[in-house]
Amino acid sequence: MRASIGRLRHRLRLEAATRAPDGGGGAAETWATIAHVWCEIRPTGGSESVDADGLSGRNAHEITMRYRSGVTPAMRLAIGSRRFEIVAVLDVDERRRWLKCLCVERGL
What we know:
The chain is mostly beta strands. The chain has strands at residues 10-21, 27-51, 54-66, 75-79, 82-92, 98-106.
């Protein structure tokens, strides 16, 4: 992959889920920011479906960033009110230079 630093023009939050007891025997899930990373966002497709008598959209994206260890599909990326669920993390060229995250943005 020949990535250009100039294409990394979106500053996203890398977030991980945390669980805290809710006092009633369950747990509440919140998202904590792990880091701010510069990324390239490239839409790759979209679809819509009917969920609970309502129309729901989703878009697929490839999000590229500089290599960072520890990024997993249990995390997500966010910018403003947009949330990108990470489905897969790829080490492009297996050289620890670039990470490509295959993501889904739901609820559009």
